[in-house]
Amino acid sequence: MKIKDWLFDHKNTLDADIILAEVLGKDRTFLVTHEDQELEGDELECANRMAAERESGMPLAYVLGYTYFYGRKFFVEPSLVLIPRPETEDVIDLIKELRPKSILDVGTGSGCIGVTLAFELPGSNILVSDIHEQNFELVSKNINEIAKNERLESKLSFVKSDLLRDINEKFDVIVANLPYVDEKWNWLDKDALSHEPSDALYAEDGGLKLIKELIDQAEEKQAAKHLVLEADPCQHKDIVSYAENHGFKHTKTKGFIVVFELV
Ligand SMILES: C[S@@+](CC[C@H](N)C(=O)[O-])C[C@H]1O[C@@H](n2cnc3c(N)ncnc32)[C@H](O)[C@@H]1O
């Protein structure tokens, strides 16, 4: 089958051109300039499989196996890690302003926050944690992929921990994009989220259970000079009030991110 015929057959498939270009290892312009090129058997098989996944509603990042975060490529796997979101990129700018030497990224998932900071802040000491140890293989893969083009000049380590339970060090910054979605929100597109691991998305107590627990633990352990937390803007008022009653002062809000300083 020719490229142009495959594209015609998939004219109603979202991102069909991106999928075919990925299978061929080319950019989308190639599809136009080589529309009469015949697809090989394995190329056709792979493109058909990926198109079927996309048609079933799987997000493009999972179909391709990667996405971009703060300009770098991060591999992702369905049911294992959340797809990094553009709103989380503000975390990186806010933390760079704080010029921290030591950072803990709680609930690292794909590693997008901790790994990006390791490359953006050379010389820093970064610990990434998650309740799921199996994520760390993917985090390592992401570090190695980026390190093909950029030198890693920070110390980066991993620890499995339920929030701060197994962590006793102190940090300049603790950053966390924990699950904060309340399953009862009526604006949720649950189908769109169905390919992502539910324990990376949902939390009880209006979505605030884990965030409040983290604030409690950070206060008790005096674990961080700064806390940088992501949550839906509709939750910020409650988070600010909770943190201000637990030893932290609210210093900044940007998009989905709230920043606190230990009092
Ligand atoms: C919303 S995802 C964020 C992933 C990544 N940091 C990002 O920004 O894309 C939340 C992450 O928190 C982890 N997690 C959930 N409960 C946790 C807990 N009690 N302690 C530590 N990590 C937890 C999940 O496994 C998941 O990787």
Précis, in short:
Helices cover 38% and strands 19% of the residues. It is of the alpha/beta class and 263 residues long. Helix 2 (16-24) packs antiparallel against helix 4 (41-55) and helix 6 crosses helix 7 (112-120).
Please explain how this structure is put together.
The chain has 263 residues and is of the alpha/beta class. It folds into 2 domains: 54 residues; 185 residues, Vaccinia Virus protein VP39 (Rossmann fold). The chain is 38% helix and 19% strand. It contains 11 helices and 9 strands. The strands form 2 sheets. It has a 7-stranded mixed beta sheet, with helices on both faces. A two-stranded antiparallel ribbon has the order 1-2. Strand 8 and strand 9 form a beta hairpin. Helix 2 packs antiparallel against helix 4 and helix 6 packs across helix 7. The relative contact order is 0.11. The structure holds S-adenosylmethionine. The site of S-adenosylmethionine has 23 residues, from helix 7. The site of S-adenosylmethionine (SAM) has 23 residues, from helix 7.
Shape: elongated
Main beta-sheet strand count, sense and barrel state: 7 strands, mixed
The CATH H-level homologous superfamily of the largest domain:
Vaccinia Virus protein VP39
In total, how many domains does the architecture comprise?
2
**Distinct bound molecules:** S-adenosylmethionine
What fold name stands as the CATH topology of the largest domain? Rossmann fold
Q: Helices and strands, in N-to-C order? A: HHHHHEEHEHEHEEHHEHEE
